[in-house]
Specification:
This protein has helices at residues 2-21, 23-40, 42-45, 77-113, 115-130, 133-144, 148-158, 161-174, 178-185, 190-198, 203-226, 238-242, 248-253, 259-283. With 289 residues, it is mostly helical. Helix 2 packs across helix 14 (259-283) and helix 9 runs antiparallel to helix 10 (190-198). The longest helix has 37 residues, at 77-113. It starts with a helix and ends in a 6-residue tail after the last helix. The model is unreliable at 1-5 (pLDDT under 50).
Length: 289
């Protein structure tokens, strides 16, 4: 037992050492941590309320009073960026959790039971994957209306197929292994075999997929909100802040209304991708220490 615990501890140290040796992964983790912290501590970092209006400073340039200027209603852009991070990152994380719940569950069932169950689930996966995301997402958003929860549901219900295929493939390769045969011989139920033996061995690719899904969630929320079908005003998100860029006047003369939000989206997605790549390399048993 002590030998097993020691082996697991050594494995964790090896994975952490591999991750920390990746310079881009470390940089991505630092930036991602920074974005999470400024979102959490938004009320402390800003002296303005989220929706406070200054009628004397409508569309004012960045200055001492308003660090990143104000928007068309006189609201502080910096403040709304901080609070918008809460919404954008929250939507991406919540949608990823929903994707994992659906994808991992169906992937396990499909890979373990096989036969007609596998065929039925895989046909559903193929059907969902056939449709372009934004076409279906825009249609659903137009029908049920824009809101934070609707964006989470749309992203989660349309993006679970990738993780389902990954888990199914891992289960198919593992379920004929000797340790699974030993578990059957010990009288373990199918549920116990899946949850205690098969599922833990699929965590590495699932974790990597989850990090990349968070990045995709940020982009999808930004796209839907930019089109007016995501998060509704006055609640800010990086996507609906970017919607100001639909005006040519704003694009040419009021850069502070869209460039900071665009940079936040770009840097957060890039950071998450760096972390995902670092985790993929760190969790790969074929990689050298």
């Amino acid at each position: 037992m002590n030998l097993i615990k020691g082996g697991k501890k050594q494995l964790k140290h090896t994975i952490l050492r591999r991750f920390l040796k990746n310079n881009l992964a470390r940089l991505g983790f630092i930036f991602l941590t920074l974005f999470v912290l400024i979102a959490i501590f938004a009320p402390i970092l800003s002296t303005y309320a989220r929706d406070s209006i200054d009628l004397m400073s409508i569309e004012s340039h960045p200055g001492l009073k308003h660090f990143l200027g104000t928007d068309e209603l006189g609201r502080d852009v910096f403040t709304r960026l901080l609070y918008g991070g809460r919404v954008s990152l929250g939507i991406a994380l919540s949608a990823t959790v929903l994707q994992l719940l659906i994808g991992v569950t169906l992937g396990c069932i499909s890979g373990f039971y096989g036969k007609w169950i596998d065929n039925a689930i895989m046909r559903i996966v193929d059907t969902v994957m056939c449709f372009p995301f934004f076409v279906i997402a825009i249609t659903i958003a137009a029908l049920i209306g824009p809101s934070v929860w609707n964006v989470i549901l749309i992203i989660g219900l349309l993006q679970w197929t990738g993780v389902a295929r990954i888990v199914r493939a891992e289960i198919l390769s593992l379920k004929q292994s000797e340790f699974i045969e030993a578990a059957r011989a010990m009288g373990l139920s199918n549920f116990e075999i899946i949850t205690k033996h098969l599922l833990p061995n699929t965590l590495s690719p699932v974790i990597v997929n989850a990090t990349l899904s968070v990045a995709q969630g940020i982009l999808m929320e930004a796209g839907l909100s930019f089109l007016g079908l995501g998060v509704k005003q006055p609640q800010p998100s990086w996507g609906n802040i970017l919607s100001a860029a639909q005006s040519m006047r704003v694009l040419q003369y009021e850069w502070w209304l869209w460039i900071p939000a665009g940079l936040f989206v770009f840097l957060s997605v890039l950071s998450i991708n760096f972390v995902g790549d670092g985790l993929r390399d760190a969790l790969d048993p074929k990689m050298k220490i």
